[in-house]
Write a structure and sequence with these properties.
Layout (H helix, E strand, L loop, with lengths): L2 H10 L7 H8 L5 H11 L17 H14 L1 E4 L6 E13 L16 H12 L5 H6 L6 H5 L2 H4 L14 H7 E3 L13 E3 L1 H10 L8 E3 L15 E9 L2 E12 L4 H19 L2 E15 L3 H8 L8 E3 L6 H5 L8 E3 L14
Parallel strand pairs: 7-8
Antiparallel strand pairs: 1-2, 2-8, 3-4, 5-6, 6-7, 9-10
Length: 352
Amino acid sequence: MDKNKIKALKQICPKLDESCVEKVKERCPDLDNECLTQMDYYLVGRENFPDTPISRREYFDNEYFKLCETVIKNGKWQRNARTGKNCLTYMGAMMKFDMENTDCFPLLTTKKMAYTPMIGELLGFIRGYDNAAQFRELGCNIWDANANKSKHWLDNPNRVGEDDLGRIYGVQAREWRGLPDGFSINSNTPFKEIDQLQNVIEKIVKRIDDRRLIVSHWNPSELNQMALPPCHLLYQFGIINNTLHLCMYQRSADIPLGVPFNIASYALLLKLVAKISGLECGSFTHFLANAHIYEDQLDDLYTQLERNPRVSPELEMPEIYDLEDLETWVIPDNFKFKHYDPHPAIKFKFSK
């Protein structure tokens, strides 16, 4: 919604009430349907309204709800070959979370989120961890099964022992194997390790946006050396007028179970990089290729969609100044989500 429309709404409705939408229709007939729909979001399920309209950004669940509705309404049923389960599948979706000029953070409120493992995993990726024990030390145990219970990985000759994960996300971000300058593919020269994340952050700190601020986790030559091929495989930063933005591309997206975690993780990455680079935090845009809902998740997802979103929490971060801080002393307990009042947790089925 553009600034003129926001101004019009404030003039018409200094205090939101049930007649607000009708007032908008009567006095501003040129306001489009998107604007009126956003007004409906404000009114649903709220008993007490503040003196000024609440920014839609404070209800980040709405963006996630739109994604769920898109997949439910437009997705097609198909049987997934890897899991053997039926899933509702939609190709090519997008969400956009505008975090500019707000302290609110896109941690879903329509179900309780376990944010400590999310923070721990992100810190592990930033540090280039390749072992489930390292993630556990940061309060994240979600990699245990991939390391020690996956038959595909247990039978892989590249696995080097208990808890090993191979060259997963963070390893590619911090130690991508490339050829040194001046050497051909046929030479016997050892690989040159490329620190993609550090290179990108150095450019951001210097305010260099060459449209190449990209970190890739997808390394075709090393997919067989990973406990799990990357789902969120590439992200790109962009600087516009002293504001940092982030886009992420995800090849495979489990809507009820994985996507809420991914939203929070990359929103936090944007916040962290903006902070250490001295830039304002802008928007996180999430591109999803294969967006799917498994058949045994659908009933629980309907339960979540019936809940009214609550105001998103505020994120309180530690005082960090550079990438080294994130690599060394920062732990999940250094982060606080203020005013987080979610609905109860939902245990969605996990498809191996």
